[in-house]
Amino acid sequence: MRSFDLSPLYRATVGFDRVADLMDRALTHDLAQPTYPPYNIEKIDENAYRISIAVAGFGSDELGVEMKEGALIVTGRKAEDDTRTYLHRGIATRAFDRRFALADHVKVTGASHEDGMLHIDLVREVPEALKPRQIEIAGPAKSERKQVETVDA
Asked: Bridge partners of 49?
């Protein structure tokens, strides 16, 4: 696998540390990404998203959703049940940590757990100062011409 040196990017930019870190993580991350639990990312609206994670066998009290340092961290911890004897165990209930890097101004608006799915709703709230705005162009100003009275002396 190729490796890219991003140190010139760090030396030549100011304030883009997060973007450079994101690129660095994406380029140096292992190809063997964890596939458990499976998930979907949907774009609901122009500024609304939903992450749906298949968490069969987990209760709401065994799941955690946390925003930390620009990342969404979803965890699942299932207490082992020693009272059951399985002949076949096909439903995976192993512990997991799933991380999603969030763009600036993306906030979690809610989470729900139903029918074995954990749904996390996100919205991008761009501040008014960063939104594009139209600037009105004024026409030539009409100057009032004052008549100068001449006084004969």
From this structure: 43, 122
The residue range of the domain holding 90 is 35-127
Residue 69 sits in a domain whose CATH number is: 2.60.40.790
Tens digit of pLDDT for each residue in 116-141? 999 999 998 888 777 788 888 888 87
Number of domains in the chain: 2
Cβ pair 126, 107 in contact under 8 A: no
Q: What is the DSSP string of 21-50?
A: HHHHHHHHS-S-----S-EEEEEEETTEEE
Measured CA to CA, the distance from residue 63 to residue 131 in angstroms comes to 36
How large is the average pLDDT for residues 13-42? Answer: 72
Average pLDDT of the chain to the nearest whole number: 81
Location of structure tokens 């030549």: 12
The whole model's pTM is what? 0.67
Residue written as token pair 């761009």: 126
Q: Look up residue 57 and give its amino acid.
A: G
42 contacts: CB under 8 Å, gap ≥ 6: 49, 50, 51, 52
Instruction: Say if residue 4 is in the same domain as residue 39.
Output: no
